[in-house]
Specification:
Immunoglobulin-like, globular
């Protein structure tokens, strides 16, 4: 970072200029590469994203600050935030047991949010034992203040988690076009902290951060700072630490060099295990509703761990055999982040369209490759709800593909069984579609 840019940023902070001085610096700097911040479907662009994580010896205090710009044609009325923790990375059974016993609770998190100093109301979007999502609304009991096209606003939110439920890592994911991202970790100096970090690239290979966090002393505290300009969409940056003044923690995770290593660490059964080739046993519903509900919770917990390791722009799914349980249950996460997950109990495909298309698929159980798989463009699926009621779902394009993939797992099949004769999966390093949605023909056209 050049001195002139550092000065612009500091001046912005000192004068409360909401990013205007820094933006002017970027426009006036000759030879400055253009930022890759084009608006998403929401129209939101993040001009500055700063996170601070402070540990006081007992509690972790997280504060996120984002300078947003609405580049879309419509007012923005809400912003999604996420809280994800894993006390024992690499030990999913241990983490699952912990969070079943001591789940995160909204009242303990003490979540607060403001927009340019105005309090924001919020409501939960996802509520799992170790994973929360909430919509922060551009409104409060005094009125509404939507972010209109062309406007800027600084959203700030904070929450607290005790160290019994926070593992030795803090991850930042780039989900919106972002000009600058930075992190400060603030630890008691007496703990003798050390910090390192990794970046997950578009090929899903974890590599060291391009620049190490800088360490500065501040009396009784030690501050580690790290930042990057114009991070690519879908990138994930993970800072990790160790307190050398404390006894060694047996929660240390294994080295996660490959995509398969990371899926193993997340508790995903890998290809070659017999459970992946057996037909899963159906549930007797509603008599076994409690067992089914518990398994669904375990699947959501596994999804949360997996999502910390990889970006899923096409949606994703998981089936019970992939966590070692041969029961007929699966979850599909749609590509649309606003859509609800699809929970499948005793599912079976009862109808397929004659129209098909062929796309690359990946599988958590052998995640180092991608294979080109033909699938029907539309399917109908019969499944059972917890109360024993039968339902038929009509699914098309991406949801049809995702759902068919997971149902295959419940019948002991992998996507390789559908690949055309003579085709083979390619290494993920050669695949260029990570983080991007599948493309489909326009309505009224067919791809066979």
């Amino acid at each position: 970072m050049t001195a002139s840019e550092d000065f612009a940023r500091r001046a912005d902070t000192a004068l409360s200029a909401a990013g205007e001085l820094w933006r002017a610096w970027r426009l006036a700097s000759p030879g400055r590469p253009a930022t890759a911040t084009s608006p998403t479907a929401t129209g939101l662009v993040v001009e500055d994203d700063h996170a601070e994580l402070r540990y006081d010896g007992t509690l972790f205090h997280a504060t996120q600050r984002r300078l947003l710009r609405n580049d879309g044609p419509q007012p923005v009325t809400r912003y999604m935030m996420r809280i994800s923790v894993d006390r024992y990375p690499g030990q999913p059974e241990r983490s699952n047991a912990l969070y079943r016993k001591r789940p995160l609770r909204w009242d303990e998190l003490n979540l607060t949010a403001t927009c340019d100093g105005e309090p924001m109301t919020w409501y939960p979007k996802a509520d799992r034992d170790a994973f929360k999502e909430a919509w922060l609304c551009f409104e409060n009991d005094r009125g509404r203040f939507p972010l209109y096209p062309g406007q800027h606003a600084t959203v700030r939110y904070s929450y607290v988690v005790d160290d019994g439920r926070w593992g030795p890592w803090f991850q930042r994911a780039v989900r919106l076009p972002t000009s600058h991202l930075s992190v400060d970790l603030i630890f008691p100096a007496g703990l003798d902290p050390v910090v390192w970090g990794t970046e997950t690239s578009t090929t899903a290979e974890a590599v060291p951060l391009r620049a190490p966090p800088t360490r500065t002393g501040n009396g009784p505290r030690t501050v580690f700072s790290w930042g990057i300009d114009d991070p690519p969409m879908g990138a994930r940056y993970r800072l990790e630490w160790r307190f050398r003044a404390r006894s060694a923690d047996d929660s240390a995770r294994p080295e996660l060099r490959t995509a398969t290593d990371r899926m193993k660490a997340a508790g995903i059964v890998q290809a070659g295990e017999p459970v992946l080739t057996r037909q899963a046993a159906p549930f007797n519903l509603p008599a076994q509703a409690s067992q089914a509900r518990e398994l669904i919770d375990e699947l959501f917990a596994a999804l949360q761990r997996v999502r910390e390791h990889h970006v899923f722009g096409k949606g994703m799914g998981i089936a019970a055999p992939q966590i070692g349980i041969a029961r007929a249950a699966a979850i599909v996460i749609p590509p649309d982040p606003d859509a609800d997950p699809l929970i499948l109990l005793n599912p079976r495909v009862i109808s397929e369209s004659a129209e098909t298309d062929e796309q690359y698929e990946g599988c958590l159980s052998f995640f180092d490759v991608r294979g080109m798989v033909p699938r029907p463009l539309r399917i109908e699926v019969a499944c059972t709800s917890l109360d024993g009621q039968q339902h038929v779902l009509s699914l098309d394009t991406a949801m049809a593909r995702l759902t068919a993939h997971e149902i295959d797992h419940l019948y002991g099949k992998l996507y390789t069984s559908h690949m055309r004769e003579g085709t083979r999966p390619i290494p993920v390093a050669e695949y260029r579609g990570t983080g991007n949605a599948w493309s489909y023909p326009a309505p009224g056209t067919h791809r066979t």
